[in-house]
Amino acid sequence: MSCRVAQIHKVSSHSEVYEPCDDSFALVDALLADRTNLLEHKPSLCLELGCGSGYVITSLALMLGELPGVHYIATDTNLHAVRVTRETLQAHNVHAEVIATDLASGLDTRLAGLVDVIVVNPPYVPTPEDEVGREGITSAWAGGVDGRAVIDRILPVVDKLLSDRGWLYMVTLTTNNPLQICRQMKAGGYSSRIVVQRSTEEESLHIIKFWQDSGDETCKKETATLKKTAGGKVMDSVLSQIQRLPFWKKFESND
Ligand SMILES: C[S@@+](CC[C@H](N)C(=O)[O-])C[C@H]1O[C@@H](n2cnc3c(N)ncnc32)[C@H](O)[C@@H]1O
């Protein structure tokens, strides 16, 4: 089965737009790793929040290309990113609606409860709070205290937009306290698992997938697989996976 992602030499660029980097590649790798489930899931509407160069939304559209009638939407606050994403999509001959907005502002009514897949590589780097939301390239990484300022705004938006069978794929850094994010989502009825993990000496990137506990058959299959992986113990979230990771102890004491 042919499977394509965006070709880097065709990805448009601008000095004020985030270039595809390790986190972008890890997110696309997570989508590729889950591609069979995604094809079976047959999403009608996919959304990327903070599309930057368009590398991720273009890759998603290419890898799901065989599915008919999927609508793709991408948003970014950075006007250069909106233009660059349109160029990247066009260079790969795929289409998405690209909208300049803060997360999904102005789209809430239109999209509430309708989005089957959301992908997001948020600004997650810990920075002084006043750097969050600045114009241009700074907004690509500035995440405020613990890198959580934008992530904490994204979670309720995602909850509002996802359909009952909706999935979220989100990049997090160890410093963002992914365990606490998973617990927060769990309280809202979402299970989770790490699809991809990349570590350096200082940090770990996790691409976490979230889905509603009450979701469709594919999700039930995922939950069952996780339970099986845990040797029959109840393990319907990423929490047990995270407990085995080195940063668990660090955050356990902060909870
Ligand atoms: C880490 S970059 C990721 C870019 C791209 N998705 C990728 O993976 O290569 C984060 C992107 O989010 C955008 N962004 C930051 N805050 C945003 C907000 N409140 N609403 C929409 N986009 C935002 C930035 O402009 C930037 O393009």
Give, in order, the helices and strands.
HHEHEHEHEHHEHEEHHH
Radius of gyration, in angstroms, nearest whole number: 17 Å
Helix segment tally: 11
Biggest sheet overview: 7 strands, mixed
Low-confidence sequence ranges: 229-237, 243-255
Number of strands: 7
How are the strands ordered across the major sheet? Answer: 3-2-1-4-5-7-6
Shape: globular
Which structural class fits the helix and strand makeup? alpha/beta
Mean pLDDT: 88
What can you tell me about this protein's structure?
This protein is an alpha/beta fold and 255 residues long. The protein is built from eleven helices and seven strands. It has a seven-stranded mixed sheet, sandwiched between helices. The C terminus is likely disordered. The structure holds S-adenosylmethionine. The site of S-adenosylmethionine has 24 residues, from helix 1, helix 3, strand 2 and helix 6.
List keywords for this structure.
255 residues, alpha/beta
Give me a quick take on this structure.
The chain is α/β, with parallel strands linked by helices and 255 residues long. It is 38% helix and 20% strand.
